[in-house]
Amino acid sequence: MGSFLLEDSMSFSERVYHVVQQIPKGCVVTYGQVAALIGAPRSARFVGYALHSNPYPGIVPCHRVVFKDGALAPGFAFGGPEEQFRRLSEEGVEFTTHDDGIRRVILERYQWRMG
DNA sequence: CGGCTGACACGAA
DNA sequence: CTTCGTGCCAGCC
């Protein structure tokens, strides 16, 4: 662990899982950020598709991946955004609540940075 | 084997 | 400020 080495033999989705696995507890990353890390900045949406398939439940912390604005994915596969919210709260991640009730992660404080 | 569709992001109008 | 088009992976009919 701790290695960000991406081999050529890895497919797009394998790279996604590889990167997401490195996200520390209590931190979040955006879909676009993951896409950029695997060298496919134009494929942010496919990152989400790959995670939806999530072949490694409990291994790939897909709940730590959020929208660019900090909002949660509407179709989270584990039990909806509510479950994702609970998991992140459990790790100490804090949210702001919009007037309309839209919860957003405070990215300024919890977005993971590589370095 | 071909086509549909799904956890996003961003520039242009 | 809002709306629309494009990018182009992978599993499932």
UniProtKB/TrEMBL annotation:
Keywords: DNA damage, DNA repair, Methyltransferase, Transferase. SUPFAM superfamilies: Methylated DNA-protein cysteine methyltransferase, C-terminal domain. CDD domains: ATase (cd06445). GO terms for molecular function: methylated-DNA-[protein]-cysteine S-methyltransferase activity. GO terms for biological process: DNA repair; methylation. Residues 12-93 form the Methylated-DNA-[protein]-cysteine S-methyltransferase DNA binding domain. InterPro entries: ATL_DNA_repair, MethylDNA_cys_MeTrfase_AS, MethylDNA_cys_MeTrfase_DNA-bd, MethylDNA_cys_MeTrfase_DNAb, WH-like_DNA-bd_sf. It catalyses: a 6-O-methyl-2'-deoxyguanosine in DNA + L-cysteinyl-[protein] = S-methyl-L-cysteinyl-[protein] + a 2'-deoxyguanosine in DNA; a 4-O-methyl-thymidine in DNA + L-cysteinyl-[protein] = a thymidine in DNA + S-methyl-L-cysteinyl-[protein]. This is Cysteine methyltransferase. It comes from Alloscardovia macacae.
